[in-house]
Amino acid sequence: MKYCDLHIHSKASDGTFSPAEIVERARNFHLSGIAITDHDTVSAIEETRALCAERGLEFIPAVELSTSALEGRMHILGYYIDTDNVELNGLTEGMSTSRHNRISAMCERLREIGIPCDYDEVRRIADGASIGRPHLAEHMVNIGVVRNVRQAFYEYLAEGGKVYISKKSNPPEQTIETIHRAGGLAIAAHPGVTHGMMDFLPELVDMGIDGFEAYYPGHDHETTSKILSMAKDLGLLVTGGSDCHGMRKGQPMLGIFKVKFDVFEGLRDAHSRP
Length: 274
Ligand code: AMP
Ligand code: FE
Ligand code: FE
Ligand code: ZN
Fold this sequence. Notes:
The chain has 274 residues and is an alpha/beta fold. 46% of the residues lie in helices and 13% in strands. The chain folds into two domains: 185 residues, Metal-dependent hydrolases (TIM Barrel), CATH 3.20.20; 66 residues, DNA polymerase, domain 1 (Orthogonal Bundle), CATH 1.10.150.650. Helix 9 links the parallel strand 5 and strand 6.
């Protein structure tokens, strides 16, 4: 049986593995194909593509774009995107600015309530990556104001937390259009774990979404079945992956949660159809 993983984060966003570590681990777990889906950046794609070619792994260039829907919690995956596309690059550059502004503003709020956060230190942790709350959480652990990342999110950074600010991003219809204009296929990311997203799927279908992420660690059997049957009825694609963030969220999921290779082929066939 052949397997793949179509949802992986690298150090270019909030994962902890480099492209080389991802490709090595994927090979060790006998995966046949992978996609890198960093948040709002395509900067790890070229390196990973080259490593996959060298090591005999099939590869799909991809991205996970944050959108403004559902209070900024809705993510849309773009597969087979052209990383040189000017419109897509404009969108990711805009997201980079808004991510920096947001994390800087959250640091400011932390200082206002007496927590000595240093934005430059958070930037240093992100090290050029698509900066986000996980990097700020790591800084808070480092300075000893929280015991762990979980507590940083629960008390401060998650929705309802003391310094939460929503991320400025683009509406889903624009995000889907940009993925399409960059030659990609747009897929609704983990609809079963983003609160309110299952009910939003019909709207995404009207906006031209190409498929749904069905196989996902946070989806129970019932949710996966429901997504599969909706996709089948609508003639849409399904995808799946581990959403591995390296060591950032406990055990690395890459190779532990894997998806049948048919799913990779379904995406590849849809992309190569005229
Ligand atoms: P951001 O892109 O800055 O909004 O941060 C979102 C990222 O934070 C997600 O992709 C997860 O990697 C991580 N995250 C979200 N909620 C939590 C949580 N409760 N605990 C740990 N990590 C989380
Ligand atoms: Fe993440
Ligand atoms: Fe996501
Ligand atoms: Zn993800």
